[in-house]
Amino acid sequence: MSFGVHARKVRDPTRPYRWRVADLRSCVQLYRPLGFHATLSYLEEIAGSFRRDEEALLRALDALTASRELWKADGREYAAKRRRAKLRGQRRPRPTDPDPSRFPGHWYGAPQEAALHALKYWCRMRLPGLRTPSDQVAEDLNTCVVACLGSGGSLTAAQHQILADCKHALQQRLRPGIAQDDPMTYFRTRDLLTVASLLETASRSSASTPSGPASSTTGGASRLASGHGNVLHGRGRPARSATMSAVEGRPPSDE
Which residues does the annotated region (Disordered) include (predicted)? Predict the structure, then answer.
């Protein structure tokens, strides 16, 4: 069924409440810019305990719907831009101009706030199992996570460069055929890339993100000016936001 059908069922007060909650989860399955579980977690953060509170359930649906509408509007704007570009002879989109309609790369309406929440969710639920002592890239990425969450969404220029180096190194690991040859490495690398993308969004306003690697990530953590700690094991988390703000390829892999 479509998003709209599930949304109407969420709003129907004659249906059993647990079914309405299940339909909200179905809506999230169809629009999950942070990944399924992280999106549900963010909705609970901004709307309240929707599993027990009807008003919170409707607030969560409104927030999700508003964000989805902004995403759809962005897709329409991209399509219009591509039509104009084709008339000028530009048949292929630029690599730096991805199609947002394929899958939303962030929560529309509050990208930084949502990305910070998703990072905290990953730190609680997923990231401890991704770190290994022999993987310096994962360690450097972890140090950037610590710095970003500790500052509430800021990274220095040097930290942005380390993040870019980490993302490039992880992308190099996804060689053709790795999903079949080594699925464990493939899924672990994809998860680490999800973390890197969340970091980019969470820290986007603090500095211009470098476009590519400038140096090896080996020992990159020692170049960071701040952000020591181990957020992947649950320490150094900033306080939960109670703000209900204006709502804002490959889907995030927290399903």
Answer: 82-105, 202-255
